[in-house]
Amino acid sequence: MSIARKILARWEVFLLIVLIVTFVVGVEVSKYFLTTSNITIALQGIAPMALLALPMTLIIITGEIDISVGSMVGLCASAMAVGLEAGLPIEAAIPVAIVVGVVAGAFNGLLIAYAVLPSLVVTIGTLALYRGIAQILLQERGVSRLPEWYQSIGFGTVPGTPIPWSSLIFIVCFIGFAIYLHRTYWGRALYAIGNNREAARFSGIDVKRTIFGLFVASGAMSAIAAIVLTAYLASARSDTGTGLELPVITAVVLGGVSIFGGSGTMSGVLMAVLVLAFVQNSLGLGGVTPEQQQIVTGAVLVVTLILFSGSGFIERARASLRARNAASAAKNTSQ
How many domains does the chain fold into? Predict the structure, then answer.
C-alpha cells in the first residue's frame, strides 16, 4: 500500500473530511456559523464533554468503560455548592470538588480492579448512587452566588483572543493525556492490557493498579469538568452533567477507539470532539431541538459501531486470504 493510500485510510483523515463537510453544511444552514463568536460558543459548550473524553479514552483502550461520569460531575458540583453554602470561598470549594471526584473514581476503581467486578455493571450502579447522593446533598436547590472571575472559566475568553478559557484548560489536559498514552511505557501498557490482559500480566504490567489509577483519573477529570460546567451554567445543581455519558462515549468511539479495547489514538478523539461540537452547533442554528440532537448523537454512535464492525470483518477476511495464499505458495514451493 502506498504512503498516500495509508494516509487516506486513517480514521483521523476520514474525521477531518467529515469536519470539513460539517463546516460547509453549517455555512449553508446559517450565515452566523463561521463567525468568531459562534465558534467560541461551540467550543465552550463542548468543553466539559471533551474533558471527560480524555480519561474515557484510556479506560476504553483497556477494555473497560465508565458509565458514571455524568453522575460524578453532578456529585462534584453538588459538593462544591454545599461548601459554598457553608461559607467556603470558591477557592476552597474547588479543591473539595476535586477530592470528591477522586474518591468517587477510587471507589469505582476498587470494585473493578480489585474486586474484579465488571466495569459496565459497577458504573451503571454508581451512576445511580452518585446522582442520588448529589440529590440528597443539594435537593432541588441551585447555588448561583459565584464570583465573576470563576464564571469566566465557563464562558469567558483569554484576553485579546477568541479562545475560551475552558478550551485552554482542555488543551493543557489533552497534551498531558496524549503524552502519557503515546510517549510513555505506561501508555503502551494500556494497549497491552486491552489486547490481552493475561499476557500483559505475565509481562510484568500491574494490571490492577493500572486500572485502578485510570478510574481515579476519571473521577478527577469529572471534578474538573464539573468546575467548568458549573462556571458555564453559572449555577451548581444536583442534576449538573445529566446525560453526559452518551456524548462522551460517542466521542471516544467515533474517534476510532475500539469499544473492545486495544486500539485508539488521542488525535482521533480530538477530531471526533470537534466534529460533534460543530454538528451540534449547526443543528442548533438550524432550529433542531436538544432532544432531536440527542437522537443524532445516538445515531452517530450506532453508525460508528457498524462501520468498525464492518472494517473488522474486512480485515479478518483479508488476513484469512493472505494466510491461505501463503499456505498455497508454500505448498507449491515444496512440490
Answer: 1
